[in-house]
Write a structure and sequence with these properties.
The complex is a heterodimer. By secondary structure, chain A is an all-alpha fold. Chain A is built from 12 helices and 2 strands, in the order αααααββααααααα. The mean pLDDT of chain A is 87. Chain B has helices at 3-24, 27-53, 60-77, 82-104, 109-128, 153-176, 179-189, 191-196, 201-220, 223-227, 232-235, 238-251, 257-276, 279-296, 300-313; strands at residues 139-140, 146-147, 151-152, 229-230. Classes of the chains: A mainly alpha, B mainly alpha.
Amino acid sequence: MDFPFELLMNAVIAGLLLGGFYAAVTAGVSISFGILDIVNIAHPAFIILGSYIAYIVNRTFGLDPILTSVVVLPAFYLLGALVYQVYHVSFEKRGDEALRGLAFFFGLLFITEVGLVLVFGVDYRYVEASYIGPSLHIGIVDLPMRMLVPCLVSLLLITVLQFFLTRTFVGRAIMAVAQDQLALRLMAADPIRIKRIAFAISIATAAVAGAFLIVIQPVEPSVGREYIGRVFAICVLGGMGSLPGTVIAAMLLGVVESITSTFYGPSWAPAVAFGVLLLTLAFRPAGLLGR
Amino acid sequence: MRSPVFFVVALAVGVLVFTACRLVHNDYVFVAGYTVVQYVVLATAWNILGGYCGYVNFGTAAFFALGAYSTVAIHKLVPLPLPLLLLVGGTVSGVVGLGTGYQTLRLRGAFFSIATLALAVVVQTLVTNWDFVGGSRGAYVLRPQTIAPLGNYVQYLFLTMLVLAVVAVTAARMIERSRLGNGFSAIRDDELAAEASGVPTLRLKLVATTLSGAFMGMAGAPFPYSVGYVDPASSFNLAYAVNSIAMPLIGGTTSWIGPLTGAILLGTIQQVATVTISSAVNLLIVGLLLVAFVIVAPNGIVGLVTAVLRRGSKP
């Protein structure tokens, strides 16, 4: 009776690969929500936007979706800087982040989704790339390439981000800005500029995460909503603003979800994130690697 | 104006609206009116927590759907009269509101909002997997064709919703002018200072989430009877969440007039836009209006009007 074991092994591996992808999806929120305290619930909408850009470029020029996302990174960076500027002037300055700031992001989420529905309709869209079909077989374990590639690129991306945050002046300033703006100002860094850079980076990661998403599964405009719960559950579980914590939490959630859908059916998977979120908030609100 | 007097006046306005609709001799007026008045209830309910306490609830759809699905479940077991169904739906949503609040309101404000977002996904997952109420296939609910004094059931639904709206608006106005309301605004303005001055913040917040959730559930309870067919996609529609946030914020969040104005205005625009343009476009309009208002006019229409009036009185 090695069948359940084999099934379990495959579920765990699939979960780890899925977790790698979730880490990329959450990295942006770990920066905006975890470090900057900006509750950007529109993040999944930017991810879907990234998916659609990858889709358009892939369909018209046949370019690789992940490569495309790297090319459009600067555009997403600028978009992020613009959104932060509006947010700062309209809400942060007025001290009105809690109510209207949240409503602002919710509105953005909604406008993006409805806008995409109006332009592309509600059909599922997908991309073509050489690694989407085949899988690697190692012993009893299957490694689908369309999961493996996003997972590896995601880990690379997060390593670079972590290096940037802990080793460079701007990165350290980003880590500091949430803790003490005045001290940062005394170090001759403009807190608003630092926050703008950080938020822009967080939106830039959405471009890459969006490309991963459309590589992994076909995308339609409302898919993003399923990720809101997941993203914030991972962010809280990992410990606000900790990228290594984000990776661990993402892998954990990926494995639990994968096991749930293997043994209880995929329709239960979305509820897992909420359970994780509630348990974390009840027992360890600081998260796994929280400061 | 004292609250009982206000209630009677509001009820009189409700009766007037109902009589006016009956004079039109077109059942569609009742269907459209039902939707608009339902949004008055949802917006007012959202505002009790969002506007008065400053806590954003993104899970209106979940509370609404809980009310709707309570009705579906009960409809399959024993046929109860509509007012009782409203009470059951309200109780279920109120209890869920209390539970969610208890889990998350002790932490920073944002966690509550995120939890409500996730709550919508989870309740939808549960309902989708619950075969008794139809699961993902949905369920047909056959309503009676007629009802004793009114004749037409559509009119009865509209009347019920109107009465519920009158109750909700009166309740919101009462809260506003009571010690409870003062406590709520203390929480909204500075929670730490409120706590330090002896305001029982957690208890007040729980009262607000429970009340707000209960009204949303009551608004959802008649839904299966009004549409006849309920499935997860229609009852968990994101439009409920967006509208119940957009309406108070566009109308103005500090008093009961705001959500009422916002709901009547936006609700009517949407009814017209759905018929004349398309339902996707009308949702886009709501989203754009919401973003425009929170940036340009943070105090909503009520804020704009008071600013104009104040300028007029001071020459």
